[in-house]
Amino acid sequence: MDFFRRKILPLLRGRYLLVSGGRDALSTDLIWVSLILIVLSWILTFCRAFIASYVLYALSLAAIFFSAFRMLSRNIGKRESENRWYLFHKNRLIRFFSEARERFRNRKVYRYVACPQCRKRLRLPRGKGALTVTCPECGKKFDAKT
Ligand SMILES: [Zn+2]
């Protein structure tokens, strides 16, 4: 512990790892991705797909190096904006898949249509025949089969 405080801590001072308190989602997820890629690369080696295995291994190393580079970086603002960009797109992707799962689950009860004007996705009850729908977002009226 004393060794850590005297030798390691001064090296980390002012670097992104300490400033972010080690809670940077992009760096953490990069480590997970690289672990998954390593395992896939091993599996491919057992399947004798050596070229694909090397490619995954190289990608895994790239992910680890990028993660380490980010943690040791002194350019805090740049790393924070990367992390914000990453979280924004990750959340959008998660929302997209959870909404798709929701639509699939309710496919027998609801029909989902996109407003022709603003593209807002609307949920209509199934089996009500042809309906005239008013979009709650932009007020556009359009016909939809249910
Ligand atoms: Zn609309």
Report on this model:
There is one protein chain. The protein is α+β, with helices and mostly antiparallel strands. The protein folds into two domains: 2-105, no CATH class; 109-146. The chain has five helices and four strands. It has helices at residues 2-12, 16-19, 25-46, 50-71, 76-105; strands spanning 110-114, 121-125, 130-134, 141-145. The radius of gyration is 24 Å and the shape is elongated. The protein starts with a helix and ends with a strand. The mean pLDDT is 94. Bound molecules: zinc ion. Zinc ion binds at residues 115, 117-118, 120, 135, 137-138, 140.
- Class by SSE composition: alpha+beta
Outline the biggest β-sheet: 2 strands, antiparallel
The rounded distance between the terminal residues' Cα atoms is 67 Å
Instruction: Tell me the number of strands.
Output: 4
Low-confidence stretches: none
What Rg is obtained from the alpha carbons, in whole angstroms? 24 Å
Treating each run of at least 4 consecutive H or I residues as one helix, how many helices?
A: 5
Elements, N to C (H/E): HHHHHEEEE
